[in-house]
Amino acid sequence: MTHDSGIPSLVALGGGHGLSATLRAARLVADHVTAVVTVADDGGSSGRLRRELGILPPGDLRMALCALAAEDDEKALLTRLFQHRYGGTGALAGHAVGNLVFAGLWELLGDPVDALDAVGSILGVTGRVLPMSPVALDIAAEVVGLEADPRVVRTIIGQVAVATTPGSVRRVTLIPAAPPAAEGVVEAITEADLVVLGPGSWFTSVIPNVLVPEIATALKRTAATKALVLNLAPQPGETAGFSAEQHLHVLRQHAPEVDIDVLLVDPRMPLSATEREHLERAAAGLGARVMTAEIAKTAEDGTMRPVHDPALLASALADSVR
């Protein structure tokens, strides 16, 4: 299937709901989509399977596969099944069916990438889903504001702990440090026409990608257009109180060698003229131009909060390459 947009190959990096939003947009405008998924989740079903079976946390991988799944009736039912969580109070309670299928295929095939490709085949996935690294990772964060003395820095370990800390995250590192990239990731980034970072949890989904040395080097060397999709609002726990520009400073601090070409911002982000000026200056520091585009709509769950809209985001991604 060829799209009018002229994006032959798109790579999206991240995790969780943010990556799913990007993938649902990407499939509308790219001929081939590769998702590169963070593998540091240690909560819920993913955390349990990771600890019990010694596998990569499957939750974000499952969500990425489901975002790229075929949409005919048969595949739509399978996708719903993969996202379904068991109820009850027994050993299966809370596990997503897709997490268990991935775990089983990994045991059968002996390789996480082979298992992901097999699930992709079952779901009729457009493109490919790859783990960021073949090694399950932990996130360690330097956090201030947890002690009476605001200068005291404490280290918090674990994605769930970092995402829910009441303090302010200053910096994150990966355990183990400098992990390898998974097979196929560097090649995908190198050959891409568009690479998309964000939206998503800044410290636990977006930043971890650039802390993998081979990924950072591939991002530096690729001829692809690199787009950064800014979150619609600061995230409680991770980036509460952050200005839009602070997100960019944090990215630069963690990945000094990675430049960005386009920064995508939705007009409903509440930016004053001064904040806009600061954001444009911070973007220029990354080599990026700020592109304001309608990429969000109001959620239909009654909360009135803005959420990224696949069709609008797809259109903006296509424009970012032009």
Total count of helical runs of at least 4 residues = 13
Span between termini? 20 Å
User: What is the alpha-carbon Rg in Å?
Assistant: 19 Å
Mean pLDDT: 94
Portion of residues in beta strands equals 15-25%
Order of strands, main sheet, comes to 3-2-1-7-8-9-10
Question: How do the helices and strands follow one another from N- to C-terminus?
Answer: EHEHHHHHEEEHEHEHHEHEHEEEH
Helix content: 40-55%
> Which outline best applies?
globular
Q: State the total count of DSSP E strands.
A: 12
* Major beta sheet summary: 7 strands, parallel
Spans where pLDDT lies below 50 across 5 or more residues: none
Structural class: alpha/beta
Keywords: Cytoplasm
Subcellular location: Cytoplasm
Function: Required for morphogenesis under gluconeogenic growth conditions.
Family: Belongs to the gluconeogenesis factor family.
